[in-house]
Amino acid sequence: MDISLPQKDFLVLTDFTHEQLTALLDLADDMKRQPENYRTALAGKSLGMIFNKQSTRTRISFEVGMFQLGGQALFFSPGDMQLSRGESISDTAKVLSRYLDAVMIRTFAYEEIVELAQHATIPIINGLTDFNHPCQALADMMTIREHFGKLAGLKLTYIGDGNNMAVSLLFACIRMGMHISIASPPNYTITPKAMEWILDDAERANLEICLTDNIEEAAKGADVVYTDVWASMGQEEERKKRLHDLADYTVDDMVMSFANPNAVFMHCLPAHRGEEVGASVIDGAASIVFDQAENRLHLQKAILYGLIK
């Protein structure tokens, strides 16, 4: 398969059409089935990887992905670059554009990635920010489609903190024709500003978005039940309060019983059993969390190929 993404960067899923995202999913499927067809697709290409947040799946999947496509990946921790000593993002972007073919960055502020992309002449890939996590959400769409054979018309229920994953899943579901419900305590729901990014699209497509604090209402009729940690990176000081405030939002067997009988459970990992999810759920027959983790590799290979081949 051969695709080219019209956008220079991969920052947020709302930058892409349904057709473009579907093409990425199709390519990722083909790469998973026939990896040997792409062994030299990015030969001689280099990816810079900037990590201002810890990572397991993002680092390994991008690094291995570049290797499997015939290219190389270079890892930079916060102290490895002059950014940590005050070099501007714009100067960094211009320099990296002279050396590399693309940059993947995992950081805190979404605005930093936008600024990097504005000054770079090479593709910038969002590996996670406090606002969104587009690579994870699109890999999740790949996993759901793999399991159900379709995306359109399905319902995803997200339970817990309305964090960057909730926002990205909202964007992904609406782009791919899925209904979504999000159950969070009142002070933990996604922001009205995030809703503005996608609400008009949902209305035009006649898709349901339900924001509620009622878990049973949210999970009723769900095909996918999804959760994430209650205290994300950078929120360690809030952990005790968050554990208290979100204590009633654990995805356990009772919650899964509200969903459709063939519903699957998803979690972007790492998971804290006994907090946001019960062990019987994440380790049970309905769990597809490790399919999710694997598909980060295939989906990100498709993104790399689409941007820099």
Task: Offer a concise description of the structure.
The protein is α/β, with parallel strands linked by helices.
Detailed description of the structure:
By secondary structure, the protein is α/β, with parallel strands linked by helices. The chain is built from 13 helices and 9 strands. It has helices at 18-33, 57-68, 89-99, 110-119, 134-148, 164-175, 192-196, 199-204, 215-219, 239-245, 253-258, 279-282, 289-308, and strands at 46-51, 72-76, 102-106, 124-128, 155-159, 179-183, 209-212, 224-227, 264-267. A 5-stranded parallel beta sheet has the order 7-6-5-8-9. Strands 2-1-3-4 form a 4-stranded parallel beta sheet, with helices on both faces. Strand 3, helix 4 and strand 4 form a beta-alpha-beta unit. The longest helix is centred in the C-terminal third of the chain and has 20 residues, at 289-308. The two termini are 12 Å apart. The model has no long low-confidence stretch (mean pLDDT 96).
What's the layout of helices and strands?
Layout: H1 18-33, E1 46-51, H2 57-68, E2 72-76, H3 89-99, E3 102-106, H4 110-119, E4 124-128, H5 134-148, E5 155-159, H6 164-175, E6 179-183, H7 192-196, H8 199-204, E7 209-212, H9 215-219, E8 224-227, H10 239-245, H11 253-258, E9 264-267, H12 279-282, H13 289-308
Parallel strand pairs: 1-2, 1-3, 3-4, 5-6, 5-8, 6-7, 8-9
Helix pairs in contact: 1-5, 1-13, 2-13, 3-4, 5-6, 5-13
